[in-house]
Amino acid sequence: MDVSEVRDDLLAEQGLLDDIVADIDDEKWDLATPSPGWTIADQIGHLAYFDHAAATAITDPDGFMRMVNDFLAAAGLGLDAADTWTLGPFRALEPAQLLEAWRINRAQLAGAAATLTNDTRVSWYGPSMGSRSFLTARLMELWAHGQDIVDALGVIRPITDRIRHIAQLGFITRNWSYTNRGLAAPVEPVRVELIAPSGTVWKFGVDDAAESVTGPAVDFCRVVTQRRHLDDTALVASPLAREWLLIAQAYAGPPTDGPPPGERI
Questions:
Q1: pTM (whole model) above 0.85
Q2: The 3-state secondary structure of the chain, one letter per residue
Q3: Tens digits of per-residue pLDDT, 136-170?
């Protein structure tokens, strides 16, 4: 897949979430979301901050590294300090101003992403990433935080085959989910067969693998982004696949746990 296709899907998903939050009353921006201590406004502020960071990483690598150092210094003081660093300026904005700030920052990212080629590498908070992986990670984060927002609002958002990017990322980060916790990743392969929103079947892994995950692609994406517990989905997993999905983490950073069973249905 060409990097331009990932960019187009990222822009489409951003627009979909924009349509959802643009129509809510101002007071709903203060609704608590499943992310502890974060409101809907904080979710959008987070996306705005890191869309700007991503655009800077592409267009001004030296400037981005200064941003990284400042962020890591704040993060070293604790989670609250990190949130204050990234969200503080956005928390001072009214909903309309915050929405406009996100639109401006994601437009910066769209313009920067248009310069990427398939073999471009982009610096980020950990190792540098290939351009397609970089934009896929942005799409995954957008979609996951969007899930927090629609859960807080109690609305259903349209799900499209654009989530294939997230499903593939969830599959290829299986080993990472173990090593990030200091665990040895199993050598046995897992076959993943998912029903896409369009009804087609997506297959990842070895066709004859004894271990498998089957079910709706949207459920798989919610599990690997830690927005649902495996037991609250329609996924069917063999024992070793279940072990993986209970610790699955499709994003970088320290190991985190998703919701317990029954908390987010």
A1: yes
A2: CCHHHHHHHHHHHHHHHHHHHHCCCHHHHHCECCCCCCEHHHHHHHHHHHHHHHHHHHHCHHHHHHHHHHHHHHHCCCHHHHHHHHHHHHHCCCHHHHHHHHHHHHHHHHHHHCCCCCCCEECCCCCCEEHHHHHHHHHHHHHHHHHHHHHHHCCCCCCCHHHHHHHHHHHHCHHHHHHCCCCCCCCCCEEEEEECCCCCEEEECCCCCCEEEEEEHHHHHHHHCCCCCHHHCCCEECHHHHHHHCCCCCCCCCCCCCCCCCCCC
A3: 999 999 999 999 999 999 999 999 999 999 999 99
